[in-house]
């Protein structure tokens, strides 16, 4: 995962493709902006040995750290200052498009990560709020699901900071995409895993959940 963020930050590309979203946020942009400001006060600034890291500390945000050696000197060479600097910030993942759908739904069905308003209080079937959760394409935290960073890697591996959505098979069908009869928990549905699943009374006939998710969504 470090390679993904390093490519984006240092090269301004994602999987070797130029990305407009990185304009102004690349390493070169940071250096140029810093030097433009330094020149106004007759200071030269050098950044060296840059290192960029990303980690998932919570289900809903990514921690990013930028470490570098900072050297400053005035243009008259009267003073010089050196320091190792570390900047850490948190980026919310809400509103980002889910990479799992970009790949597995061929970008034809868009899921943006929006935290459910029903966390821990699902009512299943009929007029229950699980229908609204499904239709609004909400996400919930679940430790058997992959985190956002793992989704970027195309991994379905469980993570303590995992998140998941429920796949709307009707939306896939409407785009001419084939569907399968299996649990609609996204990391189950799009993976090679196929645990036994069952239909839920009051939900669409294609809507199925495996045993672990029956409990998660209060459908057991």
Structure characterization notes:
With 220 residues, the protein is of the alpha+beta class. The protein has two domains: 2-92, no CATH class; 99-216, no CATH class. It is built from eight helices and nine strands. It has a three-stranded antiparallel β-sheet. Strands 1-2 form a two-stranded antiparallel sheet. A two-stranded antiparallel sheet has the order 6-7. The longest helix has 13 residues, at 27-39. The mean pLDDT is 88.
What form results from the Cα inertia axes? Answer: elongated
Rounded average pLDDT: 88
Query: What share of the residues lie within helices?
Result: 25-40%
Radius of gyration: 23 Å
Uncertain segments are: none
Count of DSSP helices?
8
How can the largest sheet be summarized? 3 strands, antiparallel
Task: Please give the alpha-carbon distance between the first and last residues.
Answer: 36 Å
Strand content: 25-35%
Q: How would you spell out the order of helices and strands?
A: HEEHEEEHHEHEHHEEH
How is the secondary structure organized here?
Blueprint: H1 2-11, E1 13-14, E2 17-18, H2 27-39, E3 43-58, E4 61-74, E5 80-92, H3 99-104, H4 129-135, E6 140-141, H5 148-152, E7 163-164, H6 169-174, H7 186-189, E8 197-199, E9 208-210, H8 211-216
Give the tags:
8 helices; alpha+beta; 2 domains; 220 residues; 26% helix; 3-stranded antiparallel beta sheet; two-stranded antiparallel sheet; 9 strands
Brief synopsis:
This protein has 220 residues and is of the alpha+beta class.
């Amino acid at each position: 995962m470090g390679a993904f963020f390093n490519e984006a930050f240092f090269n301004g590309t994602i999987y070797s493709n130029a990305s407009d979203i990185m304009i102004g946020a690349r390493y070169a942009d940071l250096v140029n902006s810093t030097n433009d400001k330094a020149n106004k006060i007759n200071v030269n600034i050098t950044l060296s040995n840059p290192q960029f890291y990303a980690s998932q500390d919570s289900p809903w945000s990514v921690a990013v750290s930028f470490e570098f050696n900072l050297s400053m000197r005035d243009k008259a060479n009267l003073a010089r200052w050196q320091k190792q600097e570390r900047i850490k910030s948190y980026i919310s993942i809400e509103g980002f498009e889910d990479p799992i759908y970009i790949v597995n739904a061929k970008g034809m069905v868009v899921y943006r990560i929006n935290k459910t308003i029903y966390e821990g209080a699902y009512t299943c079937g009929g007029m229950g709020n699980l229908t609204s959760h499904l239709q609004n394409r909400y996400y919930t935290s679940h430790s058997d699901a992959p985190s956002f960073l793992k989704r970027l890697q195309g991994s379905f591996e469980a993570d303590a900071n995992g998140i998941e959505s429920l796949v709307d098979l009707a939306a896939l069908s409407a785009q001419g995409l084939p569907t399968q009869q299996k649990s609609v928990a996204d990391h189950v549905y799009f993976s090679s895993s196929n645990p036994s699943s069952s239909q839920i009374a009051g939900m669409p006939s294609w809507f199925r959940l495996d045993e672990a998710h029956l409990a998660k969504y209060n459908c057991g």
